[in-house]
Amino acid sequence: MPPHARPPLPTPSQTVGPFYGYALPFPRGGEVAPDGHPDTLTLHGYVYDGAGQPVPDALIETWQPAPDGSLTGAPGSLRRDPVTGRAIGRDGVAFTGFGRVPTDADGHWAVRTLPPGGVSYISIAVFARGLLHHLYTRAYVVDEPGDALLGSLDADRRATLIARGEAPRTFRFDIRLQGADETVFLEFP
Known about the structure:
There is one protein chain. The chain is mainly β. It is built from 2 helices and 11 strands. The chain starts with about 40 loop residues before the first strand and ends in a 13-residue tail after the last strand. The relative contact order is 0.23.
């Protein structure tokens, strides 16, 4: 490099964030189920770092099929202000299968959704400080004995993917980024 040239600036994937504070998350991002739907379930938990401390500034995204197993979702559930174009929240009617929520000061997150059809899990992506790339995992709301991923894991690792039923239609799924009981994360090419 010539002596007068400046080194290139780091790109977002090379720089520890978070960079998602502007316009993310959006209002009602965790309200995936249509308002008042009788089959609504709550999936919630905490995000912990390698020292077991809560992560207060993580972002959780969830994806899943509709209860009928379809993957198409419903376009247009995110309402925008007609003047500014800014996201003002979900319409409360359509089911898209997608949720996005931040963790609170205690590292807690929650989504209200419908049971996933055709599979026994909800897919999750975790964005957090110190992560150069987001992490993928699954929260199984049913311990599915025939699932290929669960079947490939020993009991201790498998347990990190099973959401615990706490009450009717309420499941807890804690995400541990490192350390003892680290959540199983998936790698996609």
